[in-house]
């Protein structure tokens, strides 16, 4: 397999943790997005829909087993089995059209905090901004959020979370941990 390599010769991967989106929900979201008739931005391919938990960026391949071991040891909170994504928003700074959770469950925020803390000893910095669970529908989006004919009430099934590698515009699952009660 072709591997990205740093100038020092060290192989690395671009990694992030996320909640995956199942096939039927991807289809439903893509259909709802079509109904918005977006006039701006680049739609995120439905195959790439996800809710980022923690973005790690470029990580040495040799660190991946230690990352997985740290998450294995984490006491995972009992996360509700569904996450309601119910607000269509434009994130102006990121130029992203997103579906956001207006009331993110505390257990999900706790999970993200737990991941951040578990990875600090491995040299992964905690994010500087507050975590806001969202699913990006389009990038390079300018202007106001479009009018939605039907309310964006998407209940995302939360059964596990996944460590993904981002490569060539696609996301590849490397490991996954169970969640929810
Ligand atoms: P998002 O667009 O849903 O926020 C993989 O690259 C994913 O990680 C992206 O789809 C993006 O998810 C998130 N991501 C990418 N770069 C990031 C950054 N610098 N900070 C936080 N999240 C980032």
TrEMBL record:
Q: Where are the transmembrane segments?
A: none
What UniProt keywords are attached to this protein's entry?
Hydrolase
Catalysed conversion reaction? a 3'-end 2',3'-cyclophospho-ribonucleotide-RNA + H2O = a 3'-end 2'-phospho-ribonucleotide-RNA + H(+)
InterPro entries from the entry?
A: Cyclic_Pdiesterase, Phosphoesterase_HXTX, RNA_CPDase
Active site as annotated: 50, 134
EC numbers, comma separated: 3.1.4.58
Domain Phosphoesterase HXTX, by residue range, is 23-93, 102-168
Give residue numbers for sequence motif HXTX 1. 50-53
Extent of motif HXTX 2: 134-137
Listed PANTHER family: RNA 2',3'-CYCLIC PHOSPHODIESTERASE
Q: Could you say which protein family the record assigns here?
A: Belongs to the 2H phosphoesterase superfamily. ThpR family.
The entry's function note states: Hydrolyzes RNA 2',3'-cyclic phosphodiester to an RNA 2'-phosphomonoester.
Q: What is this protein called?
A: RNA 2',3'-cyclic phosphodiesterase
> What is the originating organism of this protein?
Pseudomonas oryzicola
Q: Which gene name belongs to this protein?
A: thpR
